[in-house]
Amino acid sequence: MRTATGLALLLAGVATPALARGATTIEARLSALEAEIATLRAELAAARAAAAPAGPATDLAMGLATGNATAAGSSSTQAGSAAASAEQLAALDTRLKAAESRDGFRVGGTTFRLGGYVKLWAAYSVYQDGTVPSGSLIRDFWLPQQVPAGGARSTHFGAHLKQTRLWLSGATNVGGAPLTGYVEVDFQTAPGTQGTARTTNGYNLAMRRATISWKGLTAGQDWSTFQNVAALPETTDFIGPTEGTVFVRQPLVRWTHALGSRNSLALAVENPITATITSESTLLKESDEAVVPDFVARLAHRIGGGEISLAALAHDVTVNDGVSKDSALGWGVSLGGRLPFGPANRHDLRFMLTGGEGIGHYVGLNFAPDGVFTGGKVHPVGIVAGFGAVRLALSPRLRSTIMGGVQQVDYPDVTLPGGASVSAWSVAGNVFATPIDRLDVGFEYRHGARGLLSGQTGALDRFEFVTKFNF
Predict the structure, then answer these.
(1) How many Å is the Cα radius of gyration of the chain?
(2) How many domains does the chain contain in total?
(3) CA distances from 311 to 301, 332, 458 (A)
(4) What pLDDT was estimated at residue 14?
(5) Cα 395 from chain centre
(6) Could you tell me the residue range of the domain that residue 150 belongs to?
(7) What pLDDT score does 234 carry?
(8) Looking at the domain assignment, is residue 446 inside a domain?
């Protein structure tokens, strides 16, 4: 189909090694922290034993602290001659507490960390070609498939804190490596049942990610292995160039293996879901009828302070409407990365190029369907999508990002409703300031547009403001 040609043109001239995600770096950091804490505890126990009166109990404490019980019987004389002062004990205790609190707090043999941010988002939107119903997600963030087309100009102002996020992790050393659990929630995707905008503006927590990881293995709900999260640009929006990016969180089992100091390979099986339209309706219908999981491979490479990755995906596109059932093979490739440049690598270029057939729900928050189901047959839909962003660090506390994204949809040669989305693009620019540590303030302007199969178009202009406290 034309998708293959479009993808070849999009990737032409791009020949780069693949990129590392850095999962092993996190494990190494946790292992180093555990080792440092264990060493400090041993030093503190030894110092306390040395400061105590000599005797059998002190000898045993010294032996346990140093990890050499056989030497405990001869340590009391050395302890008495090198008794630690109160100042030394206090200093060691301070170092231990600092090490334990650096990445959280310790309960038993597990180190916990709690973090997240509080984010206020406000926007004034101008819909050039129609109105948006109350409660539409496009009122919360840039969602190109909901840009109205073929109507009169309308405006809207709204504000919310739904993107406020919380996460909790726990790590304990098992078999010489950290066993970690991670849970992340926000308020964006769950409808509020605690009140309305007229009263309390209550919104429910919704799970984003929940994973268990050990020695390169990850099981749970996480970002798809097909996605390069590090390539996402800094934006006041929830995503930014939505139409051009892979963006999926789903259940998976992933194995990541280091290939030297700079390269890694990730292999994963992930939850298969299919979203289709029909010849009569553009309403997406979700089908959970696949008989095999999605298979994903990602090759990654670190370049100095940056990274680049190449991912491939095989997706089982299966639909069952109760009368007929049909399957087709979906496939996709995605190249993405973040490349620092300029003095001291202060600036960076971020990008993603993606193409394939039958993978619409992986890209642009399902801007395009995976397929068209008609006459008892499923026909995969092709897409080509991408974005680019340049981030300029104007000063240590001031930075700016300019970004643009695009997606083109290639439908099969079947009858289709004119309201099917066929293209989307957007450009945006922002300025972020960090007036005090952990507090960000940002302003952004975005212009985006959507094209329909009927030839109608719709456009949006939006001015956004955010303030975010990171903790």
Answers:
(1) 27
(2) 1
(3) 12, 8, 32
(4) 40
(5) 26
(6) 117-160+217-470
(7) 98
(8) yes
